[in-house]
Design a protein that fits this description.
The chain is α/β, with parallel strands linked by helices and about 300 residues long. The chain is built from 12 helices and 9 strands. α9 packs across α11 and α9 crosses α12.
Amino acid sequence: MNPVDAGPGIREQLDRTNELLQRVLAEVSKTPSTHAIFVDAGYVYAAAGLLVTGTEDRRSFDLDAEGLIEAFIDKARTIFADSRLLRVYWYDGARRRIHTTEQQSIAELPDVKVRLGNLNANNQQKGVDSLIRSDLESLARHRAISDAALVGGDEDLVSAVEAAQGYGARVHLWGIEAGEGRNQAEPLLWEVDSQRTFDLDFCRPYVTRRPVTMYEDDSPAPAREDVRFVGAQIAAAWLAARGRESLADLLPGRPYLPGSVDQDLLVEAERLLQYSLRGHAHLRRALRDGFWQHLQAQY
């Protein structure tokens, strides 16, 4: 029946229905889209380190995570121009899921959530992919995001992409340029809604190779007690810079140190001693003993 020919009652119902639809459409048009960025830190360290410095070994370079996260946010702001950022999720591994000093600094950044999986004896991440899937699926299911930028390359992330897409979210895969071949699994590339690769020029400002100091091979080795004393000196400086809260976080892992702290300890000790401790396991143990001895005395 033509609405013009309908009776007064039907016309009123149609008018009310049209008014309701207009209200709904107006509300929808005012509701901003929302995006989130999901970063597999293990992939970023390995891919960016290899691209810029030629190695995947985290101990060989420093990554300006804060600068890189800000660059990701700026890129998302350009791509999702009419969308607001929910937050950045930074997924990394840590022994016993205890934040390293670097991870603590990242966690303190605005709009950033650090999520930790475990590290096994070979420093391999465990449980990170499941954390990404859980967050992606939950946010998509609750309509908290309309778009997800996923920085990673593992094939195990395919299920996370499928889960989010099942709830209507679009997933955009971001990667880092590989020198040769690919550093992202093909099944992952097939499943996402779009792909983007960051090149050397994009990554170079955020990756810096750590200086390697060369020492004379024939110089006499320092005494064990001297190395222990230097470890205590470095511990005092470390504690003064980071405070007792960081110490409380570090103590449960003793006698082991997080990889980043242990590497910084070694580099600083070699600078003070003017002697390479690499290949001298007993001196490195003395260094850690001195470091721990001072920290435990202050607790």
